[in-house]
Amino acid sequence: MELQVLGCSGGVGDGLRTTTMKLGQEILIDAGTGVGDLTLEQMTDLRHIFLTHSHLDHIASIPLLVDSVFEHLHEPLTIHALDATLDALRTHIFNNVIWPDFAALPHPDRPVLRYQPMQPGESRQVGELQFEMVPVNHVVPGVGYIVRNTRRVFAFSGDTTTNDTFWARLNQLDRLDMLIVEAAFPDRDIDICRRAGHYCPSLLAEDLLKLRHRPEIYISHNKPGDEDEIYDECRRVITTHHLNRLSAGSRFTL
Description:
alpha/beta, Metallo-beta-lactamase, Chain A, seven-stranded mixed sheet, 14 strands, 24% helix, 26% strand, Pdiesterase2, Beta-lactamase family protein, RibonucZ/Hydroxyglut_hydro, Metallo-B-lactamas, 3',5'-cyclic-AMP phosphodiesterase activity
């Protein structure tokens, strides 16, 4: 199973895409602007989207994705997310004002979009992969995911700041091979991080001290223009773990 990073930036610009990760041919974790780099055939193959939260940079491509493959779908595209996240999609996006309600099209009995609520702590099996939803600390209800198969375990923090829930659950695992975690701002913006529910390097360093595992760590979700500053600060203050910079186009074998 291949994990392909289609987008991992905290914004857009030349070569920058927002959070989108593709697992195999059928699964996305979040659906930011990185979806737009897929071919029509690749988009048609998608069957599941696991969302971390409702912010635009993580859901932006869902309306256009569904519209682009509408005529080619023979079974619904399923969105797995918190009730609050699904309610936000229904109320603010697929409301027949911003975009058609594809959960009722072409017919309420045969929709091309299906909402599947998940609760923190719940696990869901898709093929050989198991997805476990873990609560995190963001300004809107948010989660991370632990993804397992018989060989590997990786975790994705989603958008979060200082918390205990994510790290406590990771410590309960027998193994953790890879962790993708956000660091949205440099330390000079620590007040913004606290208000906006994000990590900066010093806040992330404090929370990583809680982690008993030593996975490969990939830093994600940097604000455009601040990438080098954020990564350099992370390497300075995080000395207990091996750090890597995540980039769009990265591929990992699970």
